[in-house]
Amino acid sequence: MADPKLQLAVFAATGRLMEKRRKAVNAQVCPDYQELRTQAHAVKRHTIENLDHYLEVFERNVTAHGGQVIFCKDATEVADFVLGLAKARIARLIVKSKSMTTEEIDLNERLEHHQLEAVETDLGEYLIQLAHERPYHIVAPALHKTKEQVADLLTERLGVPRETVIEKQTMIARAVLREKFLAADIGISGANFLVADSGAIVLVENEGNARLTTSAPKIHIAIAGIEKMIPRAQDLGVFLKLLGRSATGQPLTVYTSFLSGPRRGAEIDGPDEFYVVLLDNGRTKVLADRGKRQSLYCIRCGACLNHCPVYRKIGGHSFPWVYSGPIGAILTPQFLGVNHEPGLPFASSLCGACAEVCPVKIDIPKILLDLRSDVKKTEEREGTNRVERLAFRVWAWVMRHPRLYEMAGMAAASLAPSGNGGGWVRNVPWGIRVPPLDAWLSQRDLPSAPTKSFRQLWRERR
Amino acid sequence: MSRENVLHKVRTALGRCAGQAVENPPPVRLTVPEAGIEARIAVFFECIEALAGKTYRAQSLEEARAYVETVMAGRKAVASNAAILRECGATALAGVESGITDGAHLRELSAYAACGITGADYALADTGTLVMLASPQEARLISLLPPVHIAIVERKRLLTGLDELLSILPRPADQTSSMVLITGPSRTADIEQILVRGVHGPGEIHVVVV
Question: Which backbone phi and psi does B151 adopt, to 5 degrees?
Fold first, then answer.
């Protein structure tokens, strides 16, 4: 928020994404958009409610196609598996295509710690890796970088002459990464969908880096959260239409890969080994809460971020974890515990834009409210935030007594400072800036107190 | 590793037990519109062109070959083993390598060729999409490594859209380890949302309907 240029850039970028989505879901071009959402919600609900069954079906089908499924409960287990395999195959270089799940478990750091080189290959993700940062947006990780910053980054990290033309910057990255693809021992991807009846993973992308990651190296490892499941390949008719449109306004992304197992029989190329890592890492905890379980329906389109007035103002790096925006605000407390960042569920005006654009109809505002209530329960149990809780209890009591409320209002109005800036109190006097209020007032102006209260006006005009 | 642990936690969370029966999932929702071949071709070309892809309608196999020759403009190409490429004579053009069955060899050639020439198992009219199934006829990397991709599609392979594909191929995994849908040239907008084509895959795509 301290950087007005960045704030403007984020606002403009999310605005363009909103506009693209709006055109792509418009009734003329996608007449059945609402029915698709309803179907997607129903299919996700069914799958999540019976997840154990579909996990087993998926595993059976991957195995039947010559692949292997590895269940992992946390980040350490995933890293151990990848490291073990790399060691057994004497692998050094790993290429990665964009995966929020591997961001979630800091996989790159863990691999680098063991002298493995793990290179991100999605252009935005590659830039973020060069800058040692965290993705700014689920879909557009380098949304916050200007071409000048990219020029500096490429010069500094790759030693190439400074280049500010975006096309040329892209070609520099292409050349560097092409070498990596052809030399890599292992390709690691995420998965947009896990298809139970096919034992397949589905990847959507525009650049071709996911295709290269999954086709060029001898070993392909896909790492996905257990909730990415859908029952049938035929369900993709619904989900692919919603995902591209909601994320970037594309009816289909440039590449959609449907991958099941290693290269088969006489097929000419493709990996010799195929692994799917199914990750828990807190998801079963979310699953156990009937009311908030629907958080796991998310297909990571990022539409809720683009439409969120809070995200558009404060940007992705203000959120405490890898998932930002409204979906991040409901996932983070559920994965890491409500105490991790208790303010997070409150950082929303509950305007409902997220729920309106969510392609799988997750009721994000309701989950935010439930989480607020969870935070309050924890505070009561642990005796934290006493002053605030006491203040609200007094407030609630006063509100229930109309006469008292009116008197309190009059008293407050007579004490309030008078406006010194067009009906607003720009410099709130120190007398009112006592500790809990001070932090709040330091960023805001106070409206001047009205001369007559609403109740007085009501009585006069009735 | 944690197979039993994770499955157990999932079941506990859902209040289910191992092997418990599952109700049927909601019925599949696929809608296949009626559209004649001419209408399909028109929409198909319109979509590809909107994505800056090139289109060509060949009235004969000879015309298809001649178009490929023009696009190649004397450059080197790798061709897949699709029957249509042999039939139209594209594999016999000067500078075209084809008939490759060895993965390492194919990869080497594709990494340095200017053009990759393939068939397409299907095409989807309403999104301008090519559907490529990996097989002994079609390698994965020919449509991916060279900067130019030329695809020759028989008109009978042109479907209305994704839903029709999924009703013809309800389980693509039964046939191939890899089905890829290609919709336009490779692109990115990761720096300042400025569109750049050809970031990792081909920046130029030519679709010929015979």
Answer: -120, 135
- What is the ipTM metric for this complex? 0.98
pTM of the predicted model, to two decimals?
0.92
* Enclosing domain of residue A421: 403-461
**pLDDT over 70 (residue A38):** yes
Q: What's the rounded Cα separation, in Å, for the pair B161 and A415?
A: 69
Q: What count of residues does chain A have?
A: 462
Task: Kindly list the residues from chain B whose CB atom is less than 8 angstroms away from the CB atom of residue A180.
Answer: none
Query: Do the chains contact at B103 and A268, CB–CB below 8 Å?
Result: yes
How far apart CA B164 and CA A255 sit, in angstroms, is 18
Dist. CA B124–CA A459, nearest whole Å? 69
Contact between A32 and B31 using a beta-carbon 8 Å cutoff: yes
- Verify whether the Cβ–Cβ distance A241 to B166 is below 8 Å: no
Strand order in the sheet with A219-225: A68-72, A273-279, A219-225, A186-189, A93-96, A117-120
Which of A208, A117, A102, A121 minimizes the C-alpha distance to A173?
A121
Domain assignment of residue A312, yes or no:
no
pLDDT in tens, B62-76: 999 999 999 999 999
Domain count, chain A: 2
Structure tokens, A156: 């500094």
Given the candidates 3.30.70.120, 3.40.50.10420, 3.30.300.70, 3.40.630.30, the CATH classification of the domain at B29-209 is 3.40.50.10420
